[in-house]
Amino acid sequence: xxxxxxxxxxxxxxxxxxxxxxxxxxxxxxxxxxxxxxxxxxxxxxxxxxxxxxxxxxxxxxxxxxxxxxxxxxxxxxxxxxxxxxxxxxxxxxxxxxxxxxxxxxxxxxxxxxxxxxxxxxxxxxxxxxxxxxxxxxxxxxxxxxxxxxxxxxxxxxxxxxxxxxxxxxxxxxxxxxxxxxxxxxxxxxxxxxxxxxxxxxxxxxxxxxxxxxxxxxxxxxxxxxxxxxxxxx
Length: 234
What we know:
This protein is 32% helix and 18% strand. By secondary structure, the protein is an alpha+beta fold.
């Protein structure tokens, strides 16, 4: 059996995050997320010479070993104290000796191509799907206020021109864009559950509120996302 892709791996564990969140509140991280990122960096420095994959996600071959191809820095964004805060971490890169391609190993808190951690993405998607009349803008705001980035950054270029950001028209300050949530839902719907955990005690995903979509395509995307988050394997 071929090794799961990075997106397949990202799908694992989503049900656990989904069940722990309170959809009435904006999901705010505590220090556990930052601690997990710091612990991962220390683990890479200490014993990050063995790739956790058995087969190559690019060619699906099974070499004797993968060659470490360095690390790359990643900016991670977490929600805390009604703000978007930035922290940095590192992701391991590996090279397959069979196909000569390199790939990235994503830890549990990271999703491919996303700066926000998995906890934030899952929490906001859950909030939108569970609350019938919540709009995309409502879901990424706290009591009507946008989730702002820190105003005084030494290097503001990290958020400029990023697809997850927008400038609040009232304050001219950078904030999380509601369009990011739209794309996150689409991304989650495309993930495949790998060996999903037992869901005997969980309800079926069920229909999504008709207030959430205007097309059949979007309905299918939202229901697929809800099914994934609830771990429904039916």
